[in-house]
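Work package 3, deliverable 3.1, input record:
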Amino acid sequence: MPGSAYAIRGISSIHQIALMRLEGDGMVGVPGIAMRLFGALARQSVSVILISQGSSEHSICFAVAPGDADRARAAVDGEFALERQAGIVDELVIEDGQSVIAAVGEEMRHRPGIAGRLFSVLGAHGVNVRAVAQGSSERNISLVVDQADEGRALNAIHDGFFRPRRRRVALALAGPGGVGGSLLEQIRDAAEALAAEDLEMRVVAVADSRRLLLDRGVRPPGVRPPGVRPPGGIDLGRWREELESAPTADRERLLAFLGERRGELRVFVDCTASPEVPGWYPEMLRHGIAVVAANKLGFAGPMSTFEDLRAAARHHRTPLLFEATVGAGLPVLRTLDGLRRTGHLIAGVDGVLSGTVNAVLDRLGPGEPFSRAVRWAYDRGLTEPDPYQDLSGGDVLRKLAILARLCGRTLEPAEIEVEPLLPPDPWSAMDLDSFWNALPQVDEAFERRRRQAAEAGARLRYVASLDARGARVVLDAVGPGHPAHGVTGADNLIAFTTQHYRDAPLVLRGPGAGREVTASGVFADVLEAAARLEARR
Amino acid sequence: MPGSAYAIRGISSIHQIALMRLEGDGMVGVPGIAMRLFGALARQSVSVILISQGSSEHSICFAVAPGDADRARAAVDGEFALERQAGIVDELVIEDGQSVIAAVGEEMRHRPGIAGRLFSVLGAHGVNVRAVAQGSSERNISLVVDQADEGRALNAIHDGFFRPRRRRVALALAGPGGVGGSLLEQIRDAAEALAAEDLEMRVVAVADSRRLLLDRGVRPPGVRPPGVRPPGGIDLGRWREELESAPTADRERLLAFLGERRGELRVFVDCTASPEVPGWYPEMLRHGIAVVAANKLGFAGPMSTFEDLRAAARHHRTPLLFEATVGAGLPVLRTLDGLRRTGHLIAGVDGVLSGTVNAVLDRLGPGEPFSRAVRWAYDRGLTEPDPYQDLSGGDVLRKLAILARLCGRTLEPAEIEVEPLLPPDPWSAMDLDSFWNALPQVDEAFERRRRQAAEAGARLRYVASLDARGARVVLDAVGPGHPAHGVTGADNLIAFTTQHYRDAPLVLRGPGAGREVTASGVFADVLEAAARLEARR
């Protein structure tokens, strides 16, 4: 809650206590039990550190110093021997190795929310509270925790109350290639600025298809002096070397590792193009680990897979974001989500979704036939290693499927009408040499279409669209009134028409491919996922 | 935390108890105190409902039935008479009118975070917990609260644990004119869809410059049956009539009213054009009430005002959002924020920030002189009532000031170089009739510039830009390579150039004015503010 930053004045702990519990059906409503219990303890000079008895429990719980534990047990056993025999009081339960943590503060009085933050902070760090006592003076709240959790609990309370709330993101990256590698660079460069807004971003795992590098940063026990943070996170200057010598990639090990870091905002990032990695998402979500994907395959395949993934995210209230799958770094899905949540009815989406294809089409002219434009793009690394992948329309189809589904449409990829720039037969089966040899055969057909378009004042654009009639991807001659007309180079464009954006659409435009901007879209999702995880706490 | 929806099995309460506290310096470390206390109570057949004694407190707290209170007091007074006289034990403190609430559940065992949610839920609803007891069996947690809070506490726990978490937004609107009125319509239309994601959006206050209408929806005491929500929120079908007969507008009354609604996510929306309303923001933020503004005046005036407002929002950790001040509903500031947070360095911003001016410039031609184009815009309601306001450049200056500041620049409005379409002398002082009469005098000059531009293949655009050299607004002849070239009609355009969007900028384009799209920008901010308020809980 705002303003409660220094709500407690101090924290103290008693490192070692024994927690004891006397319970039994015969205790309910019997006035003398507490008297006899504490009487017996007093006669053995046992000092009681903490007492707690809930209103509907058949038990009294108390804590004593370890040196008093045996005397306490003997005293209780003696006092309640008859009740034990009669089975109305159970054997005294003793739990060693416990600590008491007490938070003290005048300010706790009449300020609701402080106990809540205390417990939230502990819960977020996976600290289980075994017993609680807070008297009506409200100046003190005592918590019993496992001794093993004491350091963590003190740190957590310290951080939660005595310094501006610091959020820690633990990021696990699968696929440290072009986009993933850029992401790691951008995270490294942004670290300082994020820390200034109390967000600590640590990369704790990097996996490629062969190896898995895990952060084994030291996590010191006990209380650290304020301001001193434990080292942590993979060194982003050396991850490549370290990954080389890391053990074999293993999903289970990654999950177990992330499972241990409950106190952090955990985000799994998929920058692979693997058809398998999306199969990991449900398990991640189930563990409360957010998933951010640049990989389209989980969202553009069968509708049922898409729906299952979204349902898992909803069910586990854990973010699943995939902004970078459409328009790279352009905030396309975010904008669409904002429109839908504020009541816009999406009447249509028009887009140029392949920067590669647009760059090729934009070059066509009397002196630049199709085959040469494709080769130009290939030489500059704008195409996939197999350029047919760009010309088949498959990539645009996947992006349009994702957009359509986020517009609320239920549709299978096969329902999207796609006009490939080159038909699968014979192009899909060719090796690269045959491809380049055969490509000039289509130059004349493309030049004819280009000329016809130009004569009508139009331009050839590869347009993806969604409207009431359905979804399609076509090579179209678009006039100056069409939003796609002015898209040049390797830009993408997405235009949303809604009841409020009726006469003119809302348009996003910019580079739709490239490792840096794609990584930037992934990075934005990571920050969004962290914010949502925090809100779910 | 994810998955903990049904973490507790049941809630029970004991409506009336007396909470007692025995304290004193002489109690510390004296083993016999608890024995003697509970012995004395037992001899008087007083049944103890709850016991709590923290580790560092000099007190024992316990609860008894009201009928036992007198006997309990007599017993304690008798037992500790000597210590009282010696001043080492204080007089027994008795607080009547308390309730015990017990939450029970097997699942509480070993699940950190449940107590946290319990306290968070209570804190968020302003319920102060007087005493707590939770034994080490961890199946039960007992809370003592004021009897007056009992119903609220039970409701809050019920809602927090037995139904998907429901977030309640309480929205107060100042300025229910064109934009504000559209906002209320959009909220009404979106209510059902938002409720489906467990967000309940209530408009609880509407103020115009004269009157203040407050929601006095019934808030029933005690527990309501599950699923039945209290009616609440102003009837969005009748607010106009109700506002007519509402009392005089009064900021203090509005603040006091919002102050009572701490359990809700409170958002104050400024859709006025008033220079005074921004003066309310600091007080709102101080109370943890988020501020969403379509009103530019708080952000585009002196830099110190802008900085103070942002500092207040940061200090009180309360959202202050103003997306609709630039580009109406286009997600401009959001996108800029996303870029900056992900490490983009903003090298430049170019924009067409006045839809009105652009619509006028876009119409100019041999048969459409400037004066006629301005009149056309005026007749369609595209201009301000005084069209000079649009042509002075002041509106664009304010938007550019906001953009520049969000890019990290420290600058006063006077530092922005503005070329007005019409100079203040003599145009700013004219009444409307003189304005229309005089306007044709400038037609020739505008036509000359238009023709020169057209001959060079360029178009006249009113371009706002920010780069390393500074910020300026100029009437420019832009060629096809400039992002502003293709902006037609009343569209706005904003292009961001960064180290990653280097060769081609990231561009947003669409209608930059109009009540519906502006309201939609405000609405997006309201949802964002609610999400951030929730994360701050």
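Chain A has three domains: 10-162, 167-328+520-536, 334-513.
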